[in-house]
Amino acid sequence: MNTTNLLAWRLLVLTLPASSATPRMRIWRALKALGCGALRDGAYLLPLSVAAPLDELAADTIAEGGAAWLLDVTARSPEENDLFRGLFERNGEYTEFTAVLREARKTLSTTSPQELTRLLRKLGRDYEALRSIDYFPNEASVDAEANWADFKAAATLAMSPNEPQSEARAITLLDPALYQGKRWATRRHLWVDRVASAWLIQRFIDKKPEFLWLTSPADCPDDALGFDFDGATFTHIGELVTFEVLLASFALTENTGLKRLAAIIHALDLGGDPVPEAVGFEAIMTGMRQRIANDDELLVEMGSVLDALYSHFSEQKKN
Known about the structure:
elongated
């Protein structure tokens, strides 16, 4: 028999005393989170390449007064190997996730930006949790990825109808000395990327900027440097938000404090990897916008927040 293509597996067989309800539930949840295949009650399988956590669960089971055995096994035939793999099929879970996206999409136009942000964060966690246990991706996982990307784009558009679309062009390195005393223009009612970009401009690029808050991007004067709208001098490029484009344009990408701020802005504007400070920053920004209607005043207040975060991140590097 040719065993070249047969996978190696690790099998955990465990029993717990009937009285151990709490440990039983904790261990069961851990097995579920790992995406284990169940051969039967008490017998759980994982591909050997990702099976290290089973060792910890075995030790936990024994510590709770139970019994646990770990066995490394190989299927006896390609057919048996396929049966093992079938235990890890996620098609049904991807179908359920896609159905949730479909229902959520119906409410996008009537959901507040804050609620949409929370929804995106929750669904993002659900998707990443599912993807992390998809050990044998197939067409269903590809379709789910496309549906998730489409939903994120639709939700982002619903939250900020005038958010810029990403452009595909190179970023030119610029000399800040040539950008002093300029007029800078962006859309009014500042939100995360715009307020952070304005702060960055006045703090690190142009020592005497003049800001214009536009009702519409079409109102941008010819002599102003637009940022964070379609067709602006500085806007989204590739996977970068405007704040990150400004960092790259003015050679600020190696500044540790600014890099940490960029991670927050990117997470709130485009999603992606979670950033612990992002939730707090979003809450402060939301409260400031509810309290302050004037964008000049909003920039001053949020500038203080960004100054504090920048100092904190920069000091962490020194320590």
